[in-house]
Design a protein that fits this description.
InterPro entries: AAA+_ATPase (IPR003593), ABC_transporter-like_ATP-bd (IPR003439), ABC_transporter-like_CS (IPR017871), ABC_transptr_haem_export_CcmA (IPR005895), P-loop_NTPase (IPR027417). It comes from Fertoeibacter niger. The chain has 205 residues and is of the alpha/beta class. It has one domain (3-193): P-loop containing nucleotide triphosphate hydrolases (Rossmann fold, 3-Layer(aba) Sandwich). It contains 6 helices and 8 strands; from the N terminus they run E-E-E-H-E-E-H-H-H-E-H-E-E-H. It has helices at residues 41-48, 81-92, 98-103, 119-133, 149-164, 200-203, and strands spanning 3-12, 15-25, 30-34, 56-59, 66-69, 137-141, 168-172, 182-185. Helix 2 (81-92) packs parallel to helix 4 (119-133). The chain binds adenosine-5'-triphosphate. Adenosine-5'-triphosphate binds at residues 12-13, 17, 35, 37-43.
Length: 205
Amino acid sequence: MTCTVTDLACARGGVTLLERVSFALHPGAALCLRGPNGIGKTTLLRTIAGLQPALRGSVTLPPDAIAYAAHADGVKDTLTVAENLAFWAAIHGTPGIAPALEALDLATLRDRPARELSAGQRRRLGLARLLVTGRPLWVLDEPTVSLDAASVARFAGVVQAHLGQGGMALIATHIDLGLVADVLDLAPFKARPRSGISGFDEAFA
Ligand SMILES: Nc1ncnc2c1ncn2[C@@H]1O[C@H](COP(=O)(O)OP(=O)(O)OP(=O)(O)O)[C@@H](O)[C@H]1O
């Protein structure tokens, strides 16, 4: 199942940020989005994941085929690590949480309440959620924030394994994860500022 994004335009706070974004992501492939702070990487990922409407364009994969992981990780503080994963596994109908615990090195933390996790441990729990969704496209917004070097390498291996099973990954990241991935520079897709005054844009084009 290929994810095809065609002529996508997205906005935040009423401002159009990116326009004419098109690409195809095939099974087993990863694409890294690059661009300076504020260009609209998060906004584009949220739009592709179906968390906000597109101004224009289309995404062929439905939102329920996409697992989105971002800064707000959805971890429930009052539940333990294992309970958080079991909760998500139940929602997605995944049989067990052991592979996810193992993959993100969370087995020794399984009975720790999430509120007692360090930032990096919490991030690993948020990323472990990806594995229990069973969804083919992982949309990842700065997934390595707070992770130490060993955890970055471990997570890169998790993504690589997902790709090896025919999954896909779309990643906004400022660091090189060491993945075999195409890179999409968003600069050419930056929307031109609009005045909102009829005739103004044309007069000053
Ligand atoms: N809730 C909001 N309301 C209005 N504008 C917002 C909101 N959130 C973000 N923005 C603005 O939208 C623009 C794009 O933000 P976005 O987070 O998509 O950029 P980004 O490329 O992911 O940035 P970064 O690399 O810093 O994470 C920025 O100019 C930002 O200030």
